[in-house]
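Re-run with default settings, no changes from the original entry. Doing this only to confirm the output is reproducible before filing.
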Amino acid sequence: MKLNIKQLGLCAMLGVASLATTSCNDLLEMEPVSQITPVDFYSTADQLATYLNNYYNSFLQLPYNGYMYHEQAYNDGMARSDRNTDIFVQSIGGNTQLFADNYWEVPSDKNLQSNYFAYIRICNYFLETVLPKYEAGQISGNATLTKNYIGEMYFMRAITYFRALAVFGDFPIITTVLPDQSTVIVDASKRAPRNEVARFILEDMDKAIALLAPRTQFNGQRLNKEAALLFKSRVALFEGTFEKYHKGSGRVPGDSNWPGATASYNSGKTFDINTEIRFFLQEAMNAAKQVGDNAQLTANNHVMNPAVGVTTGWNSYFEMYSRPSLASVPEVLLWKEYSSAQNIKHDTPYRCKVGCADGYTRTFAESFLMKNGLPIYASGDYKGDVTIDNVKSGRDERLQLFVWGESDLMDSDPAAPGVGKLFKSPAITEATDERRCITGYQPRKYYTYDYNQTTNDEVRGTNACPIFRTAEAMLNYIEASYELNGTIDATARSYWQSLRARAGVSTDIDATITATDLSKESDFGVYSGTAMVSKTLYNIRRERMNEMFSEGQRYTDLIRWRSFDRMLTTKWVPEGVNFWDSMYQNYLVDASGKPVTIISDGSNNSIVSSKDLSKYLRPYSRSMSSTNDLKNGYNWHEAYYLNPISISDMQYASPDNTKENTYLYQNLYWPTTGGGHADK
């Protein structure tokens, strides 16, 4: 009997979720590649491409906060990808699961199968089927393309395992398509210590790097060698710094309270974590340097707004985030294309224009340097925060370009009815919740001056989305080299100066470090655990955020730095613009000139927080009702650095179907009861 690919995909068991008690039909289906049987498939380069193309979108996921690109949805896409951090907040009610007590529960239902093992199965089936044919010379077509496609699948498996590593830590390493036999599946579900998982990911990336063609082969539209080197540096930096700053917490193998120590299959293992840390940091440096040394940063001509009538060609740096094609932008190593003709579109530019129930924070705005390289508190040039224009004046041009200010031009396209109109005011008091800017600092990154894409809320965006940029490789090198050696070497300094020069900031890095007062910085990157880091390391972290914001890295960074610890003992209150000194006056009349009452009495009808609390907007202190668990700020639990394992996953990974004997031990401070809350 022949099995088609759909059937194989459903029944090829990859992990803990499918035991004898669970049939293939119980599994969540992934979209089938085709109905062609394996007998006559995977024989040409084109067939390999067909398989891969079917899964590109689904595999390109961040560990947290969604996909690596703008989704086809009514939101501002990657602009919101740093949500749930110190620099960006999203949603009218906030994230109570993360930042309030007794909301995040241990799930009872299976989680690992559909979100992780199904993806790993896709990779393993491809590699298990294709590699023997490739090695035997049985795949026809372009040899370069064939090698690239195999490399892409190693890359995709690495991305999936990185998601699992970041979210769960220790994780089963499965490299074959498992038979539908419970004993085999249970045995394969043993969690490998996180350092072993990270090393496995780097091994996959090395295989990918050896096979992948350079970016130029596909103009950045397929996974490629440079993107693989960058991703390898990302993974290695993540693990090296995670192990460094979480060592002793119980989340690192070898810790006295590491849960994996009680697993019989880990008996006899020893861990030299300091050696592991050095290994990962060195790997991060090596991979990042191969990209950074050949980086071609997109030029910034230091023009902050287009002229009326001009929609494109006014600033290449701004337009790196808002042009239809990035094929000719070498800084962008991988990008996603959109098309009206194929109905592949997003809503990002429109929602950046009108608001999207989110916004950058005061912490974010205050972290950017003045153009002279000094922090705002150390420079006499800072104009204060009575207006957003004042906040942006004389500052790092990344802040100036990618956050709306009152005098920024909103419409330059002659097709726009409001051509020549200025932004004037963020949508702070917008009646429609989903279009309100809840902090006042409204995203401009990914905005386009092509009016056809911002006409209305009909998902009309067709501008490309960058996924991997060489700038990140430069940042990865700077951080990894300093974490490893405690100095800024010549390579790191040159990278850092290049990034600052593009941002219109003085390249005198030492002056910045000298002028930094960590006690005056509200950026979470000041801390790892409860201890302040050095001024140099903080400024490296500052640079990373200033360059990479709204590109999906911030939450992962705060996790690996152990920077959420500051909320273990003291709540943190997100704040936005200085609303109550004078900005509120812009909202006292509506578009027709009628007076407007700004409700701010702390009731459930309040549109903004009370000036009695703070002159700065507090998006989650609008209502001071007893039912608002975020009204006094965010808190955190140590358990939250790793996600809980579901009860069903634990049971299915047990020789006797009990959670007590499971090979999928629970993460630290999470109970083994469905619906249970973190212990600490």
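The radius of gyration is 25 Å. Strands lie at 88-90, 332-336, 358-360, 465-469, 527-528, 531-532.
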